[in-house]
Write a structure and sequence with these properties.
2 helices, about 15% helix, six-stranded antiparallel β-sheet, Jelly Rolls, 2 domains, 18 strands, alpha+beta, about 300 residues, seven-stranded antiparallel β-sheet
């Protein structure tokens, strides 16, 4: 029978190094992000998840693809042949949205999502927020969202877009029926194949006087991990002393996602119009299991170091 003398210090060192190695691996796991889809609340006027559903038959020879929305105003594509011969016209080309959001839409001049010729829901033009997840925009005056309050689409009521210089822009109809155009004072630094949460808020501040409204823009890449619901990162300065907007009147009009001033020529997901100024958004958070593993690993490492110190 052989007897071995165990060097406890060496064993503890090996264990500690092993745990450190595991922790480095788990730190990588923590960077896995997840985004929670939005749910309708009392302030949500329009919400489009932009997930593909089955065909919606419109005639005996043509169909529409429609999106899977929490809103009662589903967006649909241009007509697609029943036999699928022009399925390339569908925005659903196997694109995945931010982790947690499922499928996303790819918008080009040949692949569009819209709602035309139906009564619009009540849209606030005194306080509102427009937001969406965007990836790889074409930067050619790309539209994120547009609402026209007439069926011909001759003039937008509200429009949110990305300019060629990567700044964001809000266009809306002011109280004198003119056009209010507001650009962000800072450009977005887009990285290839990265999802960005973009938002704009408008607030007339509830005052009777005109020219007191404010606009703010927000930009957060999906890799910006944080709390499950937190304030977005403001893009540039708050734009102040703006004209109030034209009051919304019930009408028949158009709703577009990925269009407005030009086609997005990129990927879009989770579009929402809210009748309130939002101060928190569903941004990326670490996947829950990753956090638990990391905390467990840290605890194990602390125990080993504590035992070493006591010897």
């Amino acid at each position: 029978m052989f007897m071995f003398k165990v060097n406890r210090q060496a064993v503890l060192t090996i264990v500690t190094l092993s745990i450190v190695t595991v922790l480095f691996g788990m730190v990588g796991m923590v960077q896995a992000e997840i985004v929670q889809p939005y749910a309708n609340d009392s302030d949500t006027a329009l919400l489009y998840h932009l997930n593909e559903t089955t065909y919606q038959v419109s005639t005996s020879t043509t169909d529409y693809f429609i999106d899977d929305s929490s809103s009662n105003k589903h967006l649909r594509t241009t007509k697609i042949d029943v036999d699928g011969s022009d399925a390339a016209g569908s925005p659903f080309q196997g694109v995945s949205g931010p982790n947690g959001l499922g499928v996303a839409a790819n918008i080009t001049s040949a692949r569009r999502m819209l709602r035309v010729g139906e009564a619009l829901p009540t849209l606030s033009t005194t306080t509102f927020t427009i937001e969406a997840w965007i990836r790889n925009p074409g930067l050619n005056g790309d539209g994120i969202f547009r609402v026209n309050d007439d069926p011909t689409g001759s003039c937008p009521l509200v429009q949110f877009q990305i300019l060629a210089d990567s700044k964001l822009k809000l266009i809306a109809r002011d109280s004198d029926n003119g056009v209010l155009g507001v650009n962000s004072t800072q450009a977005v630094t887009f990285s290839a194949d990265t999802w960005y949460h973009l938002a704009v808020t408008y607030d007339n501040n509830g005052l009777a006087t005109d020219n007191d409204s404010t606009v703010e823009f927000f930009c957060d890449p999906v890799t910006s991990l944080g709390a499950s619901s937190r304030a977005g990162t403001k893009l540039g300065d708050t734009i102040e002393s703006l004209k109030d907007l034209k009051a919304f009147a019930a009408s028949t009009g158009q709703i577009w996602a990925g269009e407005g001033g030009g086609n997005l020529d990129g990927d879009i997901d989770e579009v929402r119009y809210s009748n309130v100024v939002r101060d928190t958004f569903n941004l990326a958070v670490p996947e829950p299991g990753s956090v638990v593993l990391l905390l467990s690993g840290l605890l194990a490492m602390a125990l080993v170091l504590y035992r070493r110190k006591r010897r």
